[in-house]
Amino acid sequence: MKDLNAIIDKFAITGTVEAVKPLGNGLINDTFVVRTKEADAPDYVLQRINHHIFTDVDGLQGNIEAVTRHIRRKLEAAGEADVDRKVLSFVKIKDGEKTYYFDGESYWRIMVFIPRAQTFEAVTPESSLDAGRAFGRFQAMLVDIPETLVETIPDFHNMELRLRQLREAVAADPKGRVAEVKWLLDELESRAEEMCKAERLGREGKLPKRICHCDTKVNNMMFDEDGKTVLCVIDLDTVMPSFIFSDFGDFMRTGANTGLEDDPNLDNVEFNMDIFKAFTTGYLSTAKEFLLPVEIENLPYAAALFPYMQTVRFLADYINGDTYYKIQYPEHNLVRSKAQFKLLQSVEKHTPEMKAYIESING
Ligand code: GN1
Ligand code: MG
Questions:
Q1: What is the mean pLDDT of the chain?
Q2: How many domains does one find in the chain?
Q3: Which of 57, 86, 112 is the last residue of a domain?
Q4: Of all protein residues, whose CA lies closest to atom 5 belonging to ligand 1?
Q5: Which end of the chain is more exposed for a tag (fewer CB within 10 A), N or C?
């Protein structure tokens, strides 16, 4: 591992570094918490940006700076208290205006650590209600952002592209893994057309792209000490124009799963309607002001789309020989695919109930 202190020293932080320790369990970047000695200096979060995945680091940090600046202004204009805990702030390098540093090999950035906050791997109906409000508010605040954001991963949530990538992996079959997963490929192919509905609606000019978070996993939200009030959303690398289904769907995929994303025991994996109801209620309360009927009507489709897309992505990575997601054991991506597919099947069973609920609260 690099000399992290030398990297930190490139940034205009205040205080003296006391300790640097690994933080969190993201699948893409490497993250560390930087503790400072002085009581009045903040602690920090240091991250190595995975530039094999995010190839346009300058565009990526440009997005993040624009988004955090815009949100900060809105919070201040609304007279919110405690703004520093409700939006991330990134530290500039000592020589220049940039918020990232390239050491010749890796890209690094530092943000201020939000004190007295916590993240969770699971939510309750109570905390989902606030999570729904928070993601709805996040999208609502960004509806009028003046900057044009770049797609930090082009076509990130484009289902047609994800299917193409899966089919390419199947055709190449570099590890000879296709035969064993044929049944799952058939299941996915039988739903392919239905699942590409968003792209079709987009092409027909019926569905707009808006600024979305695009990685609304439960553990990308910071909760206050009470464990149920959301302070802010973090992990802003994928903030970009997308269909709003991205944020609704990915939260459902992680929050409303009664099991784990990679649960080896499929009996644990079911879609939790209480979480769906709570999150949807919260989300519509803050997002209703800008959502179109076609967006609201298709929220149950979004709940199915994301476990479907994640099955496709994990399975493609498994077939390709595990080149994208960090894995903990050889079959990990296959186990993840099966768990996501089980979740999809449970979502499908609940679709009529979801539709009825949305109609009942949407009047
Ligand atoms: C990745 O970095 P992390 O763990 O928050 C991935 C998401 C997937 C998720 C699956 C840039 O998110 O799209 O949904 O893993 N991020 C990227 O857990 O591919
Ligand atoms: Mg994350």
A1: 95
A2: 2
A3: 112
A4: 26
A5: C
Residue 156: predicted pLDDT = 96
Residue 296 and residue 161 share a domain? yes
Q: What is the pLDDT of residue 228?
A: 81
3-state SS, residue 153: coil
Residues 6+ apart with CB under 8 A from 325: 27, 314, 317, 332, 333, 336
What integer pLDDT is reported at residue 188 of this predicted model? 98
| pLDDT of 9 higher than 80 | yes
Same domain flag for 171 and 289: yes
Single-letter residue type at 355: K
Instruction: Provide mean pLDDT across the span 18-46.
Output: 91
**Strand-pair category, 210-212 with 107-112:** unpaired
Q: Which of 199, 210, 205, 290 is nearest to 247 (CA)?
A: 210
Q: Summarize pLDDT for 157-212 with one digit per residue, the tens.
A: 999 999 999 999 999 999 999 999 999 999 999 999 999 999 999 999 999 999 99
Q: Residues lining ligand 1, CB < 6 A?
A: 26-28, 53, 215, 217, 235, 238, 261, 310
Residues 220 and 295 occupy one common structural domain: yes
User: Distance from the CA of 136 to the center of ligand 1, in angstroms?
Assistant: 20
Q: What is the span of the domain harbouring residue 97? A: 4-112
The Cα–Cα gap between 186 and 64 comes to 39
Q: Are residues 18 and 151 in the same domain?
A: no
Q: Choose which residue among 57, 156, 215 to substitute to test ligand 1 binding: the one with the highest number of ligand atoms within 8 A of its C-beta.
A: 215
Q: Of ligand 1's atoms, which has the minimum distance to the CA of residue 26?
A: 4
At 110, list the tokens.
């530092």
Query: Could you tell me the sign of the dihedral formed by the alpha carbons of 310, 312, 313, 319, in that order?
Result: positive
